[in-house]
Amino acid sequence: MENDRIRVLPDGIANQIAAGEVVGRPASVVKELMENAVDAGSTSVTVNYREGGRASIQVVDNGCGMSQTDARLAFERHATSKIREASDLYRLRSFGFRGEALPSIASVAEVELRTRTPQDELGTQVTIHGGRFVSQEPVQTPQGTQFMVRNLFYNTPARRRFLKEPSVEARHIRTEYLRVALCNPSVAFSLYDSDTLVSTLPPANLRQRIVAAIGGKDIAKNLLEVSVDTSMVRVEGFVGRPSAAKKTNKEQYMFVNGRYFSSPYFRKAVLQAYEKLVAPDTQPSYFLYITIDPERIDVNVHPQKTEIKFDDEQALWQIFNAAVRETLGKLGVVPMMDFEMDRSIEIPVARKDDPLRMPDIGVRADFNPFYEESGGPSAHVYPAFAPKTRKVSDWEELYEVDSGAIGRAETGFEIETGPSAGEGAFDEIDGDLLEFIDGTAEEVVQTRLDLGEEAAFRGVLPWGGRYCATAVREGLAVVDLLRARECVLYERYLNLMRNGDSATQRLLFPETVVLPADELAEVRNLSAELEAMGFEFSVGGTELSVSGVPADFPAADTTAAIREAIAEFRDRGAVGAGRNERLCAVMARHGASSFRTVGGADEAARMLEELFGCARFNYTPSGAPVMTFVTGEEMAKRLK
Q: How far apart are CA 92 and CA 629, in angstroms?
């Protein structure tokens, strides 16, 4: 059929197809234009976007600019100034080289380019709409290049519908902005959201750029320098202290030859160096910069250029892991072996005339494998092997015990029970004696307490400072009072947000939290919920000043709580179901951190009453068990 004949696609359609790989969302446009600006030798790059990049994206630089001919030719597919022949792919020193970005962007948006070289008195302006050339004319413009991208995906409605809300797209733009900024600390960068300054990063060294771009003074004290130079690769940068590990992995960056890349394989090399140094649910920070011969890597894998092939991945994995371990070892958090302190083992020298002595072998001719050695029939059938002595147990040393009854129990005779101890005989028991109800044992049954009309619990025995034992209908329960406190605070904060009757504790001295611009934006999104819980704060510049916290919230944990709340909503989005519950869970976890030890039985009983009054008391909002208990059958099994 005639319709089945092979045809060459028009350039406009081919560019729209390529745009599907190169331009996935507004952040992709920002990434490509910022990288072009850096390749042009710019010392200052400014980015301004509106409506999350959907309405417009503007990127301005002071680089070398383009001539009139190059400005028009730049929008042709596969037109590039970075390479001349195929072998150049293995000597790349620039970000871009495919020549696909500009024609792909121009095919799905309205693009206006203004540019001027230092040699020209007038610049040139090129206008392209949906891949169709509109005009080119001279214009007065400063040296450098200005890109204005409007109405992204206006001619591909299906792609435009898949864009997320502006706040989510803006977050992706900030992520790409940071990646390019962290690659190039000598270049000044500025980011604006609808003409409002979000971030400004002056030229600096690598450490200063990381501190300014990521976390201010809080991260500065936790950066450990990494510097390893081998014949294959040079690894530089910083890793975070294990004590500063966070719940998210947003502070993990790897760069190769000034280019950001993502590699789960090399990420595992870094995380393995932190094995057993950080909690299982936390992630360390790292900013690692790799310099390697371009011929040993292949960046021509995907148009996004975040996936890179390495020549010898296994050797590089070992270098990564060793570099991080060496840095942590200097800190003293990784045990180092001191060979000088190891004493040699003395081995006696065998002499030629020394007699040989064969080891003695004892044979039990009357051994019967069907009988036990202690207790049961073997004690009567084979009295020679019956136990002569008996070790006194810890609990027998504490309390007066009828030794005769114990002996009768071991020989299988009936035990004569004496009068039981009174209820008030023991005020407190050492926590070590209750190890048999440790919730980590496999045989301990974890189940959900289902309380009826009867009393929730009977009697309270505090032990271990953080725990208490109590009798419930299902058996003997041990409650983690710290997690119980978290459950109580969770429901309290949730009710405050619903009812709006919070109480605020004013701080004597306001606490200042320095946050990057993108995190300040998240705080503004959460301001209504935080104020409903009892927080009072104001935002000025790059600082968050907290003047009040909820009445029962520890003031010392304010900074950590706000940072974790920001990370929670930055990673999973600030909209959608469970928004209030997620925020209350974070604040409850930090609010419970003020609990140190239980004062006595009365305080423990009061905390249990609050716990069993909650709608959910078996698990914390994050899913950690609050209590563990054993039934009568389980107790009998343990006592054999």
A: 64
Within 138-222, residue ranges assigned H as helices are: 157-161, 166-183, 206-210, 217-220
Task: Name the pLDDT band for 189 (thresholds 50, 70, 90).
Answer: very high
Give 236's strand partners: 227, 289
Eight-state DSSP code of residue 431: G
514 sits in the region (left: phi over 0; alpha: psi -120 to 50; else beta) called beta
pTM across the whole model: 0.58
CA 542 vs CA 250, 507, 513, 523: distances in Å: 19, 21, 9, 12
pLDDT tens digit sequence for 355-399: 666 666 766 666 666 654 444 444 444 444 444 444 444 444 444
Distance from C-alpha of 523 to C-alpha of 542, rounded to nearest angstrom: 12
Angle in degrees, 0-180, between the axes of helices 558-572 and 517-533, rounded to the nearest 10: 110
Q: Which candidate, 101, 172, 115, places its Cα nearest to that of 144?
A: 115
Using an 8 Å Cβ cutoff, are 583 and 529 in contact? yes
Radius of gyration from C-alpha coordinates of the chain: 35
Six token digits for residue 508: 């004597």
The torsion angles phi and psi of 310, rounded to 5 degrees, stand at -110, 150
Which uninterrupted H or E stretch holds 309?
strand 309-310
pLDDT tens column, 168-180: 899 899 999 999 9
Please state, in angstroms and rounded to a whole number, the distance separating the CA atoms of residues 318 and 521: 40
Contact (Cβ atoms closer than 8 angstroms) between residue 194 and residue 50: yes
Do the Cβ atoms of 267 and 313 come closer than 8 Å? no
Position with higher pLDDT, 321 vs 363: 321
pLDDT tens track for 36-51: 899 889 999 999 999 9
Distance in angstroms (rounded) separating the CA atoms of residues 104 and 74: 11
Closest CA to 544 of 568, 517, 571: 517
Per-residue b or e along 516-528, where b marks 16 or more CB atoms closer than 10 Å to that residue's CB: bbbbbbbbeebee
- In sequence order, what are the beta bridge partners of 124? 115, 138
Whether the Cβ atoms of residue 42 and residue 61 lie closer than 8 Å to each other: yes
Angle at 75 between CA 69 and CA 77, to 5 degrees: 115
Whether 290 and 227 have beta carbons less than 8 Å apart is answered as no
b/e sequence 60-84, b meaning 16+ C-beta within 10 Å: bbbbbbbebeebbbbbebeebebbe
What is the secondary structure of 41-92 as a DSSP string? T-SEEEEEEEGGGTSEEEEEE-S----HHHHHHTTSTT--SS-SSGGGGGS-
Q: What number of H helices and E strands is found in the chain?
A: 19, 22
Q: Is 177 exposed, middle or buried (0-12, 13-18, 19+ CB in 10 A)?
A: buried
Sign, CA dihedral 522-523-526-527, equals negative
| Total Cβ atoms within 10 A of residue 273 | 23
Which position has the token pair 């042009």?
40
Q: In what order do the strands lie in the sheet with 259-260?
A: 223-229, 233-240, 286-292, 252-256, 259-260
- What is the distance between the alpha carbons of residues 187 and 182, in angstroms, rounded to a whole number? 10
Judge whether 156 and 36 are in contact, CB under 8 Å: no
Amino acid occupying residue 131: G
Q: What's the mean pLDDT in 397-419?
A: 42
